[in-house]
Amino acid sequence: MKTLMKLRIAGGLWLLLMAGFAQADEIELNPGHPERYTVARGDTLWDIAGKFLAKPWQWPEIWHDNRQIANPHWIYPGDELTLTVINGKPRLQVGARREGAGGGQAAGGDVRLSPTIRAEPLDEAIPTIPLNAIQQFLTEPKVVDGGVMDQAAYVVAMADEHVVTGSGDRIYVRGLNDRQTAGYMVFRAGPPYVDAETDEVLGYEALYVANAELQAVGDPSTLRITKSARELVIGDRILPIEAEKVQTRYQPHPPAQPVAGHVIAVVDGVSQIGQWNIVIIDRGAADGIETGTVLEVRQSGVFQRDIISPSADEMVALPAEKEGLLMVFRPYQRVSFALVMNAIRAIHLNDAVTNP
User: Fold this and answer.
1) Four-residue CA torsion sign, 193, 198, 200, 203
2) Which phi and psi (to 5°) does residue 149 adopt?
3) Contact 4/121 with Cβ under 8 angstroms?
4) 123 phi and psi angles, rounded to 5 deg
5) How far is the CA of 254 from the CAs of 101, 295, 326, 350, in angstroms?
6) Rounded-to-integer distance, Cα 163 and Cα 232, Å
7) How far is CA 199 from the centre of its chain?
8) Which of 115, 220, 295, 303 is spaced 20 to 30 A from 132 at the CA atom?
9) Could you give the CA distance from residue 337 to residue 233 in angstroms, rounded to a whole number?
10) What are the 10-residue block averages of pLDDT along the chain, 356 residues in total?
11) Is the Cβ–Cβ distance between 93 and 36 less than 8 Å?
12) What is the C-alpha separation between 20 and 72, in angstroms, rounded?
């Protein structure tokens, strides 16, 4: 018997919290919005909201509670969304459901209600964002404070005179004080993350190397590699694995306070940043950034020489134009990892991020 699971898209775009804002922004529909849209496999809630709204995070303000649906916060492939106007305000409703999705389709387009249990296979969930784009960043720490890395235990030698070390091999580690933890991660210090305006070091990239388990306590201690992503080298740092709740449901929302930061790094070193690329910004939890915070990216610091001006060396600052939107999915204290949700034009390092 196949196991089916009811999938509730809890924390969808319609549950966004507008905390810190005295009044919601005026609803602005996407000029090219459809009157109806049938949800397709592979859609995300952000994509669907963007078809109807200029600001996808405003979804809850146009979602209309549908009495014919037990819970209007569930959306599935095959559902038909209809945009209507109620009391002068745009409203989005589920106008039809596919066969077997909680009720049959009656003649004339009406929904025939019937007592049934809504069950869907796991692979039919409509997520808020494409989780495959950020999966690896949810399970491995990517940023550490400089002091933490400097004081962490380190690999002093490889066991059995191995030159190349991988899964199943043993390593010798000095400075391992936490002996109550069986699981450890091996990291390599990467370049610093630096504030774009002050040049202050906000943290360091932690390049994941391997997982290891403690076999013998001593000076040095002996660890066995259980999983490796790259070859270990002497000097790699060891940190205990901390129990961390991985978040996979997101509530995109504007920041509750003014934000003025910059894109300071991009994952995989691409030069032209576009949709679904992952960037690092120089603002974090200390600046009010939360999981789900949506920020606007604007062209920043672009100057053009005025060749017509009598002053041959006169430079003109070009307007800061909107380039796209990003959503923070993993904030740290001073920096945050964010996913580019859409890009009107190419995004670049040092571009400004601000309230949308």
Assistant:
1) negative
2) -65, -40
3) yes
4) -75, 5
5) 33, 7, 11, 21
6) 9
7) 25
8) 295
9) 27
10) 30 32 63 87 82 81 56 69 81 66 38 38 58 71 79 92 83 83 84 92 90 91 92 91 67 90 85 87 95 90 78 79 91 93 89 93
11) no
12) 26
Tokens 């049938």 belong to 38
**In the chain, what are the domains?**
13-128 (no CATH), 138-240 (no CATH), 260-354 (2.40.10.410)
pLDDT of residue 19: 32
Tally Cβ neighbours within 10 Å of residue 162.
Answer: 13
Q: Provide the residue count of the chain.
A: 356
Q: What is the pLDDT of residue 284?
A: 95
> Per the structure block, which two tokens stand in for 283?
């603002």
Report the distance separating Cα 282 and Cα 285, nearest Å.
Answer: 11
SS3 of the chain: CCCCECCCCCCCHHHCCCCCCCCCCCCCECCCCCCEEECCCCCCHHHHHHHHECCHHHHHHCECCCCCCCCCCCCCCCCEEEEEEECCEEEEEEEECCCCCCCCECHHHCECCCCCCCCECHHHCCCCCCHHHCCHHHHCCCEECHHHHHHCEEEEEEHHHCCCCCCCCEEEEECCCCCCCCEEEEEEEEEEEECCCCCCEEEEEEEEEEEEEEEECCCCEEEEEEEECCCCCCCCEEEECCCCCCCCCCCCECCCCCCEEEEEEEHHHCCCECCCCEEEECCCHHHCCCCCEEEEEECCCCEEECCCCCCCCCEEECCCCEEEEEEEEEECCCCEEEEEEEECCCECCCCEEECC
Tell me how far CA of residue 265 lies from CA of 59, 131, 204, 311, in angstroms. 30, 21, 12, 36
Q: Token pair of 156, please?
A: 């002093």
For 165-174, give one letter per residue: b (16+ CB within 10 A) or e.
Answer: beeebbbbbe
pLDDT value at residue 338? 94
State the residue for tokens 């002050």.
Answer: 198
**Structure confidence at residue 221 (pLDDT):** 93
Write out the two tokens for 145. Answer: 């404070």
- What pLDDT, on a 0 to 100 scale, did the predictor assign at position 320? 74
